[in-house]
Amino acid sequence: MAFTKAWRDFRRMQDVAVAASCLIYSGSVVHAFSVLPGGPGTIAKHALLWPACALLASFALPLLILPVRRMLARYVWMSFLSGFGQTAVSVLTGVGLLIGAASFIYWQVAAVAQGGRYPTAVFGGYAAGIGILAAQSLLVRWLEKDPEARKRIEE
After folding, report:
1. Is the CB of residue 77 less than 8 Å from the CB of residue 150?
2. Residue 26, class by beta-carbon neighbours within 10 Å (0-12 exposed, 13-18 middle, 19+ buried)?
3. Is residue 114 predicted with pLDDT exceeding 90?
4. Residue boundaries of the structural domains of the chain
5. pLDDT tens digit sequence for 42-98
6. For residue 146, which of 39, 20, 1 has the smallest C-alpha distance?
């Protein structure tokens, strides 16, 4: 099965978005351990344990609940049809969004040092976003098996 260049670029962009967001999250956790108060146990709970629950839920639930899976698969398909990940502008837009999210999470962690609130929700929200991106990346593979989609993505 040979896919069009547009589909291969789109699939690659989905995977790169997941990998980049995981790297950004990892960097923010390392930063949190060097900045946040409360010791390693407290930081691990707020930056790793609870966000892991959010990541797993946001990954599994859209895939297990059929109506949600259909909606997310439709969103992924429409993203492909609109050209996401296939042009320099769309790639730069995706990278810009990831940089914006990274800047926000780093800013929230740094704010704690000046008396700000503990960024548990930021870690959880970002982890949930990674879960959704991972679900989308998996749905790309599922779309490759759909006969209607296959007609549009094969050379």
Report:
1. no
2. exposed
3. no
4. 5-153
5. 999 999 999 999 999 999 999 999 999 999 999 999 999 998 888 888 888 888 988
6. 1
- How many CA atoms are closer than 13 Å to the CA of 23, on its beta-carbon side? 9
Write the pLDDT tens digit of every residue in 23-46. 999 999 999 999 888 899 999 999
> Crossing angle of helices 120-145/88-112, nearest 10°?
150
Paired tokens of 83:
């050209």
- pTM strictly above 0.85: yes
Q: Which residue has the tokens 């999210």?
A: 101
The alpha carbon dihedral of 58, 16, 103, 40 has a sign of positive
Average pLDDT over residues 122-136: 94
Q: Residue type for 133, please?
A: L
- Spatial separation of the C-alpha atoms in residues 54 and 62, rounded to whole Å: 12
Q: 39: exposed, middle or buried (C-beta count within 10 Å: 0-12, 13-18, 19+)?
A: exposed
Do 109 and 103 touch, CB atoms closer than 8 A? no
- Number of residues assigned to the chain: 155
What distance in Å separates the CA atoms of residue 73 and residue 27, rounded to the nearest whole number? 30
Q: How many CB atoms lie within 10 A of CB 131?
A: 25
